[in-house]
Specification:
The protein is an alpha+beta fold. The chain contains two helices and two strands, in the order H-E-E-H.
Length: 79
Amino acid sequence: RWAAILEDSFSMTLPNTDYREMATNERGQFEQSLSGVAQAMADSTLCSSFLQTLGKGSPSGETICFAYDCDRKNFFMDN
């Protein structure tokens, strides 16, 4: 699904997230750069793993997750 939404040349700049593992070593002082579908997928997995640690030890034991709904009619593409 990721490859259907993102182009191979996809890139994204995010703030550094020193509190969790990052998918890339391409970092500036305050930001990290992700390139391509594989890095976007890897970062999503690492973010999910971090979020799972937040619920550990809670009485409810609920699982934390993100759900995305991509409606192709609402996509904004540049270039």
